[in-house]
């Protein structure tokens, strides 16, 4: 661990790619020490190196958020020396299919990463935050959390759970100085979207990218940096009055798409 004692610490899961990477880079610019946590250590290390090149400070760790023991071991190691001031539960995966195309194993996999992964991290961080009467938790949900998305049965279901988990945690710890909020992005252009297009439309990926972009009410997909900007705000003292809230950031997807 390389951080200096005076810096705040943010732990970002799924920090090696897409939205998580942008969140790490953005918070690092605020002089926050970043713990980049990802299943993919190479990806986490690349983000760490980017931060260090920009004179920030960061560490990288390989952890599967679905693994209760691994998460607890990492958080215990960190909190022996440092507080976790900010926890961003960003790691998540998708699955395409309605209920008939969702095998039990698919459902278990999505539940374990998208729901249990968030539970594991909050469960491992909460004691440290409570003992200091301070902490910020931000969970990455989705537009699917509130309205569901066609052919994304397991994804919608698990992201709905992330939203209600946010409300529950916010209520339980409001008197412990802990704020817990949720962000609900619409389509954001990351490897998550590229993988979906490559998988679903291997022969006309570029055309489908255009179509998907144009189908958003605002006429384009979001940028990871735009999500990172909202996370940055919610972590800051300017957001001290905000807890138990859900923030759609979706180019109008939920409210204007009818
Ligand atoms: P991404 O696929 O680009 O990145 C996800 C990262 O999470 C990867 O680095 C991956 O290695 C890591 N990861 C996956 N499983 C993990 C595990 N078990 N343990 C630790 N790390 C793991 O995805 P993204 O588009 O940046 O999405 C980030 C979050 O935002 C996800 O929770 C996703 O559901 C949510 N989201 C994305 C979009 C979108 O359009 N991109 C829209 C709404 C919500």
TrEMBL record:
<dbReference type="InterPro" id="IPR020904">
    <property type="entry name" value="Sc_DH/Rdtase_CS"/>
</dbReference>
<dbReference type="InterPro" id="IPR036291">
    <property type="entry name" value="NAD(P)-bd_dom_sf"/>
</dbReference>
<dbReference type="InterPro" id="IPR002347">
    <property type="entry name" value="SDR_fam"/>
</dbReference>
<dbReference type="InterPro" id="IPR050259">
    <property type="entry name" value="SDR"/>
</dbReference>
<dbReference type="Pfam" id="PF13561">
    <property type="entry name" value="adh_short_C2"/>
</dbReference>
<comment type="similarity">
    <text>Belongs to the short-chain dehydrogenases/reductases (SDR) family.</text>
</comment>
<protein>
    <submittedName>
        <fullName>Short-chain dehydrogenase</fullName>
    </submittedName>
</protein>
